[in-house]
Amino acid sequence: MKAQEKVAWTELVVSVVAVVVVVALYPWLGGAAAGGFCLLGLLGITPLFMRNRGNEIVADERDQQIELRSSWFGFGTGWVLMMVSLAAVTIWHSNQQFDVSPALLNVMIWIQFAFCYAVKGATSLMQYRGSQRAT
Amino acid sequence: MPRKAESNLTNCVRDLRGSVDGMTQQVLADAVGVTRQTIVAMETGTYTPSLALAIRIARVFDRGVEDVFKLDE
């Protein structure tokens, strides 16, 4: 498995696990379950996969293309999600007499962050699929 | 914006490799400075190489770029 694929798997797994943990803990912890998003900090280990090992080529021009395309999809998804959720909160709040909860905004931002990296990782893996056969 | 794959760009890298003894995908990959998976993707037509990579591959086989890569129009 290439280094860039390890990065993609890490992004996908960490993002999905973080969301699952928060959703699973919510019935017991309520808003404090958002602390489960701290798992997203594990994304910080991805540069370790890209370190140089002797003369082995870690990433080439195709990896850069895939990374670029995945980033477009990932960050694009995050951006659209943010716009839609902010619009939804604004519309919903305009009919209410109370303020929007900071906890709600906090969770919204974390979920967008998780979705961004989940989509980025999944898109990378889809592009790498089918290029492993040796002849 | 990332470069799009050219669906009408074909290549004969696999055939050229077959004509050279011991020229595996890994050997070719090392010779042109990319990973083996990139050679696989290029041979199967799922990846369009950059001009620089195309030139380096053609040089490995001592051919012109248009002898290795063909654009069907």
3D architecture notes:
The complex is a heterodimer of chains A (135) and B (73). Chain A has 135 residues and is mostly helical. Chain A contains three helices and no strands. In chain A, helix 1 runs antiparallel to helix 3 and helix 2 packs antiparallel against helix 3. The model of chain A has no long low-confidence stretch (mean pLDDT 88). By secondary structure, chain B is mainly alpha-helical. In chain B, 49% of the residues lie in helices and 8% in strands. Chain B has five helices and two strands, in the order βαααααβ. In chain B, strands 1-2 form a two-stranded antiparallel sheet. The longest helix of chain B is centred in the last third of the chain and has 10 residues. Chain B starts with 8 loop residues before the first strand and ends with a strand.
Task: Please give a handful of descriptors for the protein shown.
heterodimer, A: 135 residues, mainly alpha, 65% helix, 0% strand, B: mainly alpha, 2 strands
Summary, kept brief:
The complex is a heterodimer of chains A (135) and B (73). Chain A is mainly α and 135 residues long. Chain A is 65% helix and 0% strand.
